[in-house]
Amino acid sequence: MENPRAMFDHLSFTFVHPHPRRKPRGWVPVCAMLLCLCISPAISPQPALAAPVLSPVDPVHETGSQVLEAWSHKPELHHDIAQLSPLIPNDAPWLRHTVFNLYGTPTRYPVESLRHYSAPVLLEHTPDPMFPVERLKIASPAMGRAVEVQVRPAPNRNFQAPTLVLLDGATAPSQSGWLREGQVLDTMKNEQVTLIMPTEGTGSNYADWAQDDPYLGRMKWETFLTQELPAVIENPASGFNTDGRRYIGGLSMGGSAAVRIANRHPDKYRGVFSLSGCYSTTEDTSRNFLNFVTRSVGGDPMLTWDESGRARHDTVANPQGLKKMPVYIFTADGNVVEADRVKHRTNLKQLAGATILEKVVHACTVEFDQSLRSHGIDHAKVVYQDGGIHDWMYYKQQLPLAWAHIRQG
């Protein structure tokens, strides 16, 4: 989830206007509202970023940001969030009504527009209009449309290089967040690796959905990422001169998916990283996080997996696929520090949303860390940062550290 502000704006629609045919019990809207606020190995603490230079701000925002900072440090906040998730019924009818798409217009690829492609092929290869990268349109038989990805080739094309797929957060628009907020072209400018950034995966959790969504369209992202994308990128005709070594990583929704996909396809990836993700498809907190990702963009998460599918995709329950590859996992603790407060003090909604989001993924990370250790996977590097919220300024800092760790695979 990369836009906590939208999460707060969503409340006025989703919970002020519940399902018209069913009045929820009094405690449910309150719990659901709080849940939506939650849902935008060596232990190695990382220092928080230095605070930027203060700029003029009105006293109301200044005081509000200070109150939120103090609130974020309350120990009982973690406990309250943990106690909340089991109270939210995942399949309540009033939670399943269509929600206004917070992040823009409906998909450009409605189900009725799907096309038949017999094989994944490169349809178009052009310079990107906004960034100094290349934009590819790839025919996807699985999704029935042309999937667009942005690619930053390895700096020296005369030498073979591995590929690193970078998955975006919940919005996953046509311009990757890794290029925009993540500033990947600066942080990875000297790395001899081909960076691949899929676009338009909004709210998909990068999964193969069991059913088409009437609003979001057809989602077969796991098939695309593991089969169709490599077939095109690694074809010599594409011009990327890859060496067959594949890595995958992401943040928030994308981090959750990267770990799940690598775990399910250990033969296809040499290493994986995740920044602020959730990793169980069945446990309450993580499941609600993944469900909200889809609901927040107008989709129905009940179409993603049935219950047996959720069980099969649960990385916490079965992380065995990660045993032979480097794994890098990051989370902050959700405690607001000066850099967070100064950056967001004119937008208290975003500050509060990013705070609770990070506390949710922190709980998910602790659960995942414990599972890895109980399954004998003690080589994973799990980084717990003291201070910090759900924010790109931490993810762009973490990317080169994560890459340095997983590229050893």
UniProtKB/TrEMBL annotation:
Any Pfam family the entry gives: Esterase
InterPro entries linked: AB_hydrolase_fold, Esterase-like, Mycobacterial_A85_antigen
Keyword vocabulary terms for this entry: Hydrolase, Signal
Keyword Hydrolase: yes
Region forming the signal peptide: 1-50
Domain of life where this protein originates: Bacteria
Recorded GO MF terms: hydrolase activity
UniProt keyword Hydrolase, yes or no: yes
Protein name: S-formylglutathione hydrolase FrmB
Gene source species: Corynebacterium felinum
